[in-house]
Amino acid sequence: MDSTQLIGYVGALIVGLVLGLIGGGGSILTVPLLVYLLGYNPIIATAYSLFVVGTTSLVGTFQKYKKGLVDFKTGLAFSFPSFIAVYLSRRYLVPNIPDTIFTFGNYTLTKEMAIMIFFAIIMLLASFSMIKKGKEKEATSKIQPYYKTFIQGLTIGTITGLIGAGGGFLYVPALVLWANIPMKKAVGTSLIIVTINSLIGFTGDVQTLEIEWVFLLTFTLISIVGIILGVFLSKFISGEKLKKSFGIFTLLMAVYIIYKELK
After folding, report:
1. Gap between the Cα atoms of 3 and 1, Å rounded
2. Which of 12, 26, 36, 143 would be 222's cystine partner, CB 3.0–4.6 Å?
3. pLDDT digits 0-9 by tens, 184-196
4. Stated pTM of the model
5. Domain boundaries, the chain
């Protein structure tokens, strides 16, 4: 095993830790790690990210469920429109994006560049959400109409499909603000949505891409170890402080990706 691979596997452990601690953000690390450190094409990287984050989140869901921190009814309500959008995006939309988006003089915007820049923009928005200090929200009996949940699920699912992200960093604030779920339960509930979205989205990629299963399964197994450790450590670490720190890291990572792709 060379040093690059070793660093990649350490990164896989960190991906799991982040998912276990804050319920999202795994793909924010996974995609740049696969693209910039391990040299994978962004299309492959986003596909692998869906599998890694989805499988790891499945383990995290079980861990959170044992603590009573998963609202399955709300999670499944969001999951249904989301996984439809994710699957259709990965199966039909991403493969049909032209290799060259546009050319202006000597500058050419390729499909891979466009996906990474869009990914970075979503990271920027997510970082502001994580950095912004919010008050813990108490559960209420108010339930929004399902058509709103359906539209929200479709929207986030499409974004998830395009950037190869599980969407946890989008679903946690959505569950708090739209579904009136307290923060800790929103983190747990987001994991079941991320699991369903990611794994179903990945089935769309299996039909169009050649997968390196040995590497992918090894990377995923290490991430699973990370999420088990992350869920355990979440009992001792302040979620809000960690979320803010990760938000700052995400902001810096997003700026780096935009610089790297546009230079």
Report:
1. 7
2. 12
3. 788 788 888 888 8
4. 0.77
5. 3-262
